[in-house]
Amino acid sequence: MKRLPVIFKRQLSSYLSSPATYFGIALFLVANAALGFYVGHFLDKAPTNLHAFFQFHPWLYLIFIPFISTLLWLDEHKDTALVFTNTLPVSALELTLGKFFAAWVLCALPLLLNFPLIIAINYLAPADNSTILAQCIGSWLLAGAYLSFSGLICVLACNRLIIFSLTLTLLLITSTLSSVLDMLAHQTPIWIIDSLISLNPRLRFSAIDSGLLTLQDTSYFVSMIIAFLTATTLTLNFRKG
Question: Which of 29, 127, 163, 180 has CB 3.0 to 4.6 Å from 121, enough for a Cys bridge?
Fold first, then answer.
């Protein structure tokens, strides 16, 4: 794992040097602010947390995560870069973790830029800062779960449009899983329905968004991240072999 920091710094530097990164973050912040103020009705009642904004994060991540994921493995798909990478003493696990953590740190940036809202809430009324902290952690975990899945898609595909479209489609299907299962409630045993609904990351995040950061929900997101990172590492080892 000695080369993990090098890969992390290289990928993070690649993100920070790309104008597309700042465009994606700005678009996320503008869309989140517009939805929070005009759809979430943030100013209609005395707010104590950021639920009016964070409730839209599962949907905004459907665009933001595939957008930043297209930069994760694009260079490594080039023939010259792939040959060069295979000659380096870098393991597939180091590549996977280094790139993932760089992108995950980038996902924390839009959350940190919510500090003006946190200051405003604490100034206007007694704020529930523990719930705000839970919302931030839950949103970051959700972004990490989506990102680990997107990283696997990036390794399998080699075209930006394919990566974006495929990731968006699969994440959208996952996020709307509960709605689809509701329509099948009369044709499928209830225990199967309940088991599948519990896998919906949007519903898990909704529980955290209400201020309940439980070990069960946290373990769910961490398990998703580990599972998809493991699959990405195995895929890289297979391709390298």
Answer: 127
